[in-house]
Each structure stands twice: as C-alpha cells, then as structure tokens.
Amino acid sequence: MHEDYVSVSNRTHRLGGPMGNRLFALVLRSGHSRRSSHSPDVMTAAMNDKSIKAPERRLLTSRLGACALIAAVGWLMPLAAAAQTTIKFIAWNFQVETVNEFVKQFEAENPGIKVDLEIIPSAQYAAKIQLMKNANTPFDALYVFDHVLGQWASWLEPLDNYEGAAELKAKMLPLARQSMTYNGKLYGLPYFTSYFGIVYNSKMMKAAGIAAPPKTYAEWTEQAKKIKAAGLAQYPLIWPVKHTGWGGIWVMNTMVASRGGKLLDEKLNVTPEGLASLKWWESTYREGLSDPNGIELDPNESARAFMTGNYYTNLTASFFAGAQWANDKEKSKVAGAAFLAPTPEKHVTVGFARMYGINSTSTHKKEAWEIVKFLGATAKSGDYVTPKQWVQKGALTWGYEGIEKDAAVSASLISWGGDPTDMAANLKNALAMNQVVPFQAVWYAEWELFANGVLQNVLAGRVKPEDGANQWSEKAKQLAARYK
Length: 484
Prior knowledge:
Blueprint: E1 3-8, E2 11-16, H1 17-30, H2 40-48, H3 54-82, E3 85-92, H4 96-109, E4 113-120, H5 122-134, E5 141-145, H6 149-152, H7 165-171, H8 174-179, E6 181-182, E7 185-186, E8 189-201, H9 202-207, H10 217-229, E9 237-238, H11 248-258, H12 272-286, H13 299-306, E10 313-317, E11 338-341, E12 350-358, H14 365-376, H15 385-394, H16 407-415, H17 420-429, E13 431-432, H18 444-459, H19 465-482
Parallel strand pairs: 3-4, 3-5, 9-10, 12-13
Antiparallel strand pairs: 1-2, 5-12, 6-7, 8-10, 8-11, 8-12
Helix pairs in contact: 1-2, 1-3, 2-3, 11-12, 15-16, 18-19
C-alpha cells in the first residue's frame, strides 16, 4: 500500500496513503492562521467533512493533533532561525582565548545575537581595517586605536544618542572620555585605559644599595651608572622603542609631560622640554646605560626582555607590571620584585585608551551597540562585568570611576604588587595624549610612524638630537599643510 511520510526534526511520522493526504490537506486548509494544534477550526473541519466515513473520521481525529503539531513546527522553525542576528566583530590578537570567553558570555546573555569574531594581528590591524573599509567589506563592531580616531571618525558611528550612552559618558574617567571623543562626539566605549610609569626591578635596586626608584632624570642616570658599575646589569635600561601599535614616541610624550611640557607647540615646533627629553634619552645609549639592541624592540618585546631579570627599569604602559607580564610567577624572573613607580620630575604622566566602536554602515547597529556596551561598560545587571574581568585576566585597567573599589579587582591588583588607590589616582590624573601632541589630527598617525623612525636613528647615534627634532617639526608642518 502506498504511504506518505512527513519528516520533522529527525522523526518520521507515517500517515496511511489517502487518509494521510486528506488529513494533511485539512491541516493546511485550516491552518493559515498558524494556531495551535488544538485549533477549533481544524477540529470542526474534520468533524463536518461529509466525504469522510465514520471509521475514517475517528482515525482522522485521533491523528489530527500530531499532524497539526508537525505543521506548527514547520512554520515555527523558520521564525526561530530568523530571530537570531549575526554580527561581525573584529579584534586584534591580544589574549584571544579571553576575548572568546567574553563573546560567549555576551551570547549567553543575548541569545538572539550570534557573534562572528575575526582576529587580526595588532601590527597589521589599522591597515587591514582601512582596506576592509575601502573594499566595502561589511562588519559591525570593532576595536579602535585612539591614535587613529581622527582618521576613522568619518566612518565610525557616534554613540551619544544610543540608550544609556550619556550616563556612561558621565561616569567615565577624563582620560577615557577625552581619548574617545572627537569633535565633540563620542565614538567608543573603553576596552581599557592605561598610563605610563616606571616598571622597576626592586631586587636589583636593593642589591645596588639604592633606596628608591628615581625621582629626577639626573638621578635615573646616576642609579643606572651605579648598577652597571656593580656588575648587576650590562645595560640597566630597556625601553619600548619600535612601533607596533605604539612605540618610542609615546615614551617621548611621557617624558615631556613629566617635565610639564608638550612635544610640539602650536606652531608644530619641538618644544624645549621635547628637545631636553630627546637629548637625555640619547645620552643613555651613548653612555652605555640603555641596551642598543632594545631600539628594535616593540612594547611587548621590551616587556619580555625586562622579564629576564637583566634590566633595572622600563618606562612603559602600567599593565606591563601585571601578573601576565613582569609579575608572572611562571614566566618572569622578576615576579614579586617588579613594581610601578611614577614618572620623574613633576610626576605627571600620560595615558591612552583603546575602545570598542561601531561601523556607521552596519545594518545591525542595535545589536552592535549591545556588544559594545557589554564589553565596554555594563551587562544587563548594570555591573561592569567585562572591564572587571580584564583587570583580573590581563591587568588591563578601567575607564570608569570607582571600579578599583570592587573587592575582586582590588585583590587582583594587590596580588602582583599593585596599589589600587595609587593606580586609580594615576588613571584619573593622567593627561590624554592630545594634551601633549596633536594626537587627534587627521595627519597624526602618519607623523607618528615617521617620527618613530627618526627617534630610532637618534637613539642609535645616526642622527643628532637637534637634527632629529628639526625633522619632526618639518614633517608635522608638511602633513598639516597637506591635510588642510
């Protein structure tokens, strides 16, 4: 006998030939409203169909519920699938497993949103994103460097009018708010903020009979000479110089800020504080205090070099003192002996922010805002879930007031020697980069790459500090004129 089959979710329901055809036709005829399997219209149609004999009618009604359920599942399955939105989120390759963990947390809290995560190496990140924009490659949310905000603002989505943005902006640290605001508009929420300080090896310091880290640049020089003379280090000083995301120019920005100045003045000439900083830094190489091989080390590489225990200081981003770097008990030879000290002279420092932004051409801006808010601010509970976890998992500090008061955050910082109150004060008082250089100028990112190359030549002794400073000024003026 011929038989019909209706298959749903790997189960096959067998309906006897003509009976099955008639049953299915009844369901289709009465089911346009997509009502439940007990719809009175379906039942009525079955009972009133005079062409069906009594025995068949009894069999028909007994199977009606199952068939209607099959039809309902068939209609509802496409609706369920359509309810989930997939968004493209792009990040660079820092602690990718941690990022994946946060994405899973977001998806669990937002079951209607699926995240397609793409990871790009940090060194190629800015160039790759720009290529994607030029090719109109679709994506929704992404990591954003603050030093390219001036270039990217033309296609990033302003966030000011999104739900909850004004309240979050009001709670941000000044450093975060300034770093993510361009021409009066907010373009991101904080991935993290950081400030520059001296990461020092207290074990080496004490072995040399030095009581405290340097408070002036002259004292820094004398301490390095003492350590070298004692045979404790061939080159006591290591620096992040090579540009990968950032490099030596940010160290220069820190040095001039600590002297109370700017690197470039309003006419784009190098300031006296800028030249003094460059001369002092160059002298540490000339006098054999800074490792000449370090000129080719980027921020991550210089941090790993410091972890060998062969160096006294590294002026770098604060998170490099954390449990994942200098105080990594498994990988660092200075774990437990590495601490953060303030910059010399006026003890003023600079900071920076990385942020989460939205592509203005995204077709899923609402969903993109949800992941930006979850990662860069609060979960639905109102708690700063992801920012707090970044402190514990990456020593990446926060962009909002008061997060250091959280018990888990405070304990995490203390575990590797960080002082929550001191770090919070530094983050609150750190100058944004655009207070020291034209950081948000459209031409700045191009200038920084050029200037970093000049800096490497100066530190290597190939170019005099005065000539290097003149090259910086000339290039800045050329670019500013070109981008008018």
